Amino acid sequence: MVQQVTKGIKISVETNFEGTFYKNYKVHFAFGYKVTIENQSKDSVQLNSRHWKILDALNNDEIIEGEGVIGKKPIIKPGESHTYNSGCLLASPFGAMQGHYNMVNFTDTKKFRVVIPTFKLSAPFALN
Predict the structure, then answer these.
(1) Which residue of 54, 62, 95, 108 shows the fewest CB atoms closer than 10 Å?
(2) Span 77-99, pLDDT tens digits
């Protein structure tokens, strides 16, 4: 698990390898990840959008941007958290993801960015 705190918002990420499968005559490696966003600040915040950079060992990278997470724009009160599960496909058994969430603080209405720490994706069979 990797964790990072930005402006009182703690991001924790756990990953798992889901398996391999063929699509369009190519092998793909499926990874799942669980993100917990914990509000350790004194203000209520809302997650408005996300930005991900997905990298694989074949030097491919993909940028994903969008509103909310899993179709939601959660409001997280002080001391509360929001957890969701998602996943990605890689063309190689190794890779990494990193990014940030764009959030707004309800007390002062200021927008701010919360860093999602870089986390590694690796298929256990490919490890030495």
Answers:
(1) 108
(2) 999 999 999 999 999 999 999 99
User: What are the residues whose beta carbons fall under 8 Å from the beta carbon of 74, sequence distance 6 or more?
Assistant: 37, 46, 47, 68, 82
Q: Are 102 and 113 in contact (CB under 8 A)?
A: yes
DSSP at 69: B
Backbone angles phi, psi at 115, to 5 degrees: -75, 135
Class of residue 61 by CB neighbours under 10 A (exposed 0-12, middle 13-18, buried 19+) = exposed
Query: In the structure, how many helices (H) and strands (E) does the chain have?
Result: 0, 9
Rounded Cα distance between 110 and 105, Å, is: 5
Regions of the chain where pLDDT drops below 50: none
Domain ranges of the chain: 2-120
